Amino acid sequence: LLTWLVAAILFLFTLRRWFFTLVALLPDLPAPETGEGEEPEILLLVPFRNEAQALPGLLAALDRLYYPEDKLNLIFINDGSTDGTARVMDELAAKHPFVRPQHHPRNRGIAAAILLAAIEGRQE
User: Fold this and answer.
1) Which of 72, 13, 64 is nearest to 44 (CA)?
2) Interatomic CA distance for residues 16 and 93, integer angstroms
3) How does pLDDT run across 108-118, given as a tens digit for each residue?
4) What CA–CA distance (Å, rounded) separates 31 from 44?
5) How many CA atoms within 13 Å lie on the side-chain side of 49?
6) Do residues 46 and 110 lie in contact, with contact meaning Cβ atoms separated by under 8 Å?
7) Pick from 116, 54, 42, 43: nearest CA to 79
C-alpha cells in the first residue's frame, strides 16, 4: 500500500512538471492594449545605506533607460547613512526631477525603509 501511495505521489509530481513544461512552450499571449505610445507610470523605491560612491553610477545607468521622465518616479531612501549619501542624494534630486530623496535619521533596515517610504509616499 505504501509503495502505491509513493508511486502515485511521484506520478502526480511528474504530471505537474509536464504541465508546466507545456505551458512554458505555449506562444506568449499578446500584451494588453494601453494606447499608442502610452507607457504606465513606474515607481521605484531604492533604499541606500552608506552608498555615496555608488549613487552617481546608479543614476547614470538609470539615465540610459529609454522611458519618459514624466512616467518615471524614483524614490531614493537614505536609511541612516553616515558617509555623505544624503548630500549626494540631494544633489542628484536637484538635477533630476524624477528623483525624490527621503531621509531617515537612523538605520531601520531595508524592509522598514521601503515600508516607511511607501507610507510617506501615499500621504503626499
Assistant:
1) 72
2) 49
3) 888 888 887 77
4) 22
5) 13
6) no
7) 116
What is the rounded average pLDDT of the residues 23-37? 71
Distance of CA 124 to the CA centre of its chain: 20
d(CA 94, CA 91): 5
CB of 47 within 8 A of CB of 114?
Answer: yes
* Total length of the chain: 124
Distances (CA, A) of 82 to 38, 49, 61, 103: 41, 8, 24, 12
- The single-letter DSSP state of residue 72 is E
Q: Measured in Å, how far apart are the chain's first and last C-alpha atoms?
A: 63
